[in-house]
Amino acid sequence: MSNYRWQFLLVAMAGWINRHQQDVIAYLKEENRVYREQTAGKRLRFSDEQRRRLAAKAKAIGRTVLETLDSIVTPDTLLRWYRRLIARKYDGSGRRGPGRPRTCAAFAELVLRMARENPTWGYTRLRGALANLGHELSRGTLRRLLLENGLEPAPRRSTWTAFLRNHWDQLAATDMFTVEVLTPRGLVRYVVLFVIELSTRRVSLAGLAVDPGENWVKQVFRNQLDAFDGFLLGKRYILMDRDPLYSQAVRALLDSSGVKPVRLPARSPNLNAFAERFVRSIKSECVERMVFFSEAALWRAIQAYAAHYHQERNHQGLGNRLLEPGAETSRRDGPIICRQRLGGLLRYYYREAS
User: Fold this and answer.
1) Which residues are registered as beta bridge partners of 192?
2) What angle do CA 48, 51, 53 make, to 5 degrees?
3) Distance in angstroms (rounded) separating the CA atoms of residues 238 and 193
4) 194: β partners
5) pLDDT number for residue 40
6) Do residues 62 and 26 make contact, with C-beta atoms less than 8 angstroms apart?
7) What average pLDDT score do residues 298-318 get?
8) Is the pLDDT of residue 241 over 70?
């Protein structure tokens, strides 16, 4: 009889525990419904840790039971999180693949530095230079490193920057710009040709003409090539675009005088950036802010700007300095004077000697 009593008590206790669990589950389900009503239309944000915990619990319950629950996350989402959790466990992407290990970053940077600084060095020469530093590297690894970083084999590795650096003090550039002059016959377009020395940024206004031709350009460059005071004295190269005015005869004249013309590719203003910058400066600071009624007025204006450009204008590309500073730039005492050109369009402030 006592066994029946214990069985009855166990069944009663199990029924009470089951009812209690059902009440707890019913409460949590109702709490979830209220929470979902409060967050209706809002996207819930879960951390990776929260996703992991929910996914692990969801797997233990199973999809059938999950569908009966009014959970805040759908069963499909929970199971997708679980599959992602398994995939992450067996993810082998972080493991090193077969073959030799990759070249360390510091060593690769050394190789690239040597290749950039020595564009004529081939793979064998680079291997020898690296061996002097105690590093052994195969030609295949060298080739892969250079190609992955956009460096061609020698001698194709030579760059425009390297050419400019190697010939900096012997380089000049030429270009032209146009200005409209208002005359009794209407607007007349004048062409201004100039030459700029790249290392110092000094500029020579070579000539001004309405309808320049080959003979005019040749004469302009003859003046620049004068054996006594020509602007191109000591220069070996002159950069120029593909304007038809720089004809074969003009280039032959320069070449025969020891100044080799370097014709730039079409539509490449960045390769003649210093000349292009001067054009922008003289237009924005001078000619586009004035109206000219004669050739003489235009010539006086651009000559005044050239004087201002060399003696009174600070150049950011040269450490914000003047190209040709006068004695007044070192003065720290005395009254401040303003020198004006072109009716105050160009101004320069300095201290008068006390």
Assistant:
1) 177, 208
2) 110
3) 14
4) 175, 205
5) 67
6) no
7) 94
8) yes
